[in-house]
Write a structure and sequence with these properties.
The structure holds two protein chains of two kinds. Chain A is α/β, with parallel strands linked by helices. Chain A contains ten helices and eight strands. In chain B, the strands form four sheets. In chain B, strands 9-8-10-11-13-12-19 form a seven-stranded mixed β-sheet, with helices on both faces. The longest helix of chain B has 21 residues. The two termini of chain B are 36 Å apart. The chains are: A alpha/beta, B alpha/beta. The structure holds thiamine diphosphate and iron/sulfur cluster.
Amino acid sequence: MTSFEELTTKERPTWCPGCGDWGILTALKKALVELNLPKHQVVVVAGIGCSGHLPQWINTYAFHSLHGRALPVAQAIKLANHELNVIAVGGDGDGYGIGMGHFIHAMRRNVNITYIVHDNQIYGLTTGQASPTSEKGFKTKSTPHGQIEPPVNPIALALSADCSFVARGFAGDVPHLVKLIVQGIQHKGFALIDVLQPCVTFNYLNTFDYFYRRIYKLEEDSSYDPTNKQEAFKRAFEWGERIPIGLFYKENRKTYEDELPQISQMPLVKQKIDFVDIKNLIEEMC
Amino acid sequence: MSEFSWKIGGEAGYGIMTTGFILGKSFVRAGFFVFDTNEYPSLIRGGHNTYTVRISEDPVFSHSKKIDILVALTDIAIEKHKKEVRKDGFIIYDEGFVNVKELKGINLIPVPLTKIAIEKGGQNIMRNNVALGASFALIDVDPEILYDAIRDTFKGKKGEDIAQTNINVAKAGYEYVLEKFQNINKIKIKSNGKQKRMYINGNEAIAIGAIKAGCKFYAAYPMTPASSILHYLASKENDYNIIVKQTEDEIAAIHMAIGASFAGVRAMTGTSGGGFSLMTEALGLAAITETPLVVVLAQRPGPSTGLPTHTEQGDLRFAMHASNGEFPRVIVAPGDVNECFYETFNAFNIAEKYQLPVIIITDKFLAESHATTDPFFIDGMKIDRGQLLSEDKAKNIQDYKRYENTISGISLRALPSQENTIFKAATDEHDEYGRLSEEPADRIIQVDKRFRKMKVLETEIDGAKFYGDKDAEVIIVSWGSTKGPILEAMKLLHKKDIKVGFLQILYIIPFPVNKTKSFLEDAKKKILIENNKTGQLGSVIKEKTGIDMDYKILKYDGRPFTPEEIVSQIEEVLIHDKL
Ligand SMILES: Cc1ncc(C[n+]2csc(CCOP(=O)(O)OP(=O)(O)O)c2C)c(N)n1
Ligand code: SF4
């Protein structure tokens, strides 16, 4: 049995007290416990940012990649050994800014991994500049006169990029987030979980309180059907007085790995390479 | 005559490449030695393409300047290449479509290529095959070797019927010339007997080397001249269970290769200079996480988009210093198709044994030119995975340190899914466990540990080769694809009683300091030859050995050297010195 304690490292996180990242780490560990995943079968891959430090504080395998580059590493780990559970984490700058190209393509590719975005609508580690999800007019160190561009809408983007599992969580509601992460890991395909993660140090606007007053859970609306993409799109654009969290959309389609005969018998990493017979290839050149 | 050269020139997009390849292949099959090279602009239709094939009774390592038979499909082909045709050489041209006035000292062979193609094959694109047949009528060999090569090329892809039509068309060209030009002095060449040899280019040799090395994952974004590695590996992905992924960009490609390697499979990526520019940050990621990685850098002339379909050796310094920070890497520069094959195989062993990035640097000339060589000798090629932990060994490990500070600098490498060896691979500086650390002591330990690996590696690698006469008047130094033209130039100089030696630098890093010194210290005239503007290898030699080159022969017009160019420049040096 995987326990919460064995996933916990001796070192304590260095995040600011009260930061939303704490809730996400707790939720991830709880989800792994609930799924009873052996810790050596899990790889957490991170980008750079406050969020990117997460894998240091969870006792699983980890690859700490470059800024914006968690997804290509994570997808390849899964392709090389599809028996592993691969979870990518990163910030909104990491995933929706510098890593945006990888994000879009990873979703349509549908490699079976889970992607948790710590969406704090600000650049934390670099001490408070605007991020791709910062709201229009938002004043930061880099936008002292207010952000001019409207924000990226990750949920709508994901829906249009054929993401097969699209969800939004809130770092202030850990039990709900645990459920989403569990579903995301269980989902066969690429699962996006965008997590509203208040940065208590640099984001004065999108605070815990801000979200407590606005969020509602999609699953509490009995009329909502998360297999209906049109409905999902409608909710994806809801932001302001009311902000939906929960599962927006889910569909079952083949994963990228399912389409690869190369690994239909066994994972790539288990295939022997000590003697590769290339006689035919040489013959073809003659 | 023991050799001849054939060139076809025409509009891009009309099968010129296939035509040249078929001609080359037919002669290889018949026991001759062939070297070919192509030139094409960066567009799909129109523009001017050429394919040059040199055929010889003896081994050949590059093309040559003089052409014996020119096939001109357009007026431009005549204009551009008539000067290359030797005295009493031939120009076959498409009668009715190409206009030529009399050319002094050249045999004009007008053949209604398009007309015959339409009559016999129904398609004007088959005129290339008419031209092939017509060419064979000027050479004293059995045309059956051509028909066999055509059959082989078309049968697989297009079926028996199409193959036969193509052969009929070629036959018609052959017969037309035989009948119309009976008093021709045919080119005489004799095969020394059929022998099984490969006709292969650098990219194919690299791809096959990677397959032999157990490469299981190749990620790349298309970019000339590296793309045909992607194409070749993709065509074999199911036969050899390799995941070949075209990614959204080169940044993704290199990160995917790193991810796959971290998970335990041998992985490679390949690109040209522009894509390599995008990969540079991740090169450092492979280095600091000590993840084995093989990167192919097939150069083309820069900066920026430069001359996208041409050749240059302008990225040597870039490859040596790419990425921020200081870290060990290996750079190998194969000079021919054999070295492409064997050094790619070695690159995977080195990358895994030393847990670092290995760059295989080539260029368009090497990547896309076909050469004739004996079938690769594969007996005794051994995969060495270095300190990679097996499942069994990993089970017994306690207190695992992924980045343990060992004497060699190489640490045990565990893989995700192994039970007792959970670790973090970190892009930040870290301690021996892989935990982030900004402590000065940890920093020094890890930097030194990474660099210590090079000390061991240096003892394992013989990074230079020497050809010719050690006491020669002239010692040439070069690297990469210039090897072929230099070896050919040496043959020509030998005939003129000029003795030359050639030091080929095969490994740029680790640099073969001692060997370079031993060959250059007492050399009378040291001549650097490079396909670039600034003589980059020359500056590396100076840095590593203190030795200055006496002369530099540099070329940066986007074209490879011809042996004749090298000869005349060396002769100039010699004359200059006597004055
Ligand atoms: C190529 C590159 N550019 C810039 C940086 C500097 N940098 C580090 S983290 C970061 C942004 C952090 O914001 P986000 O991704 O939202 O993560 P957070 O810290 O908010 O969790 C930046 C710009 C970097 N590490 N690498
Ligand atoms: S700066 Fe913001 S995101 Fe970073 S740890 Fe502190 S509160 Fe969290």
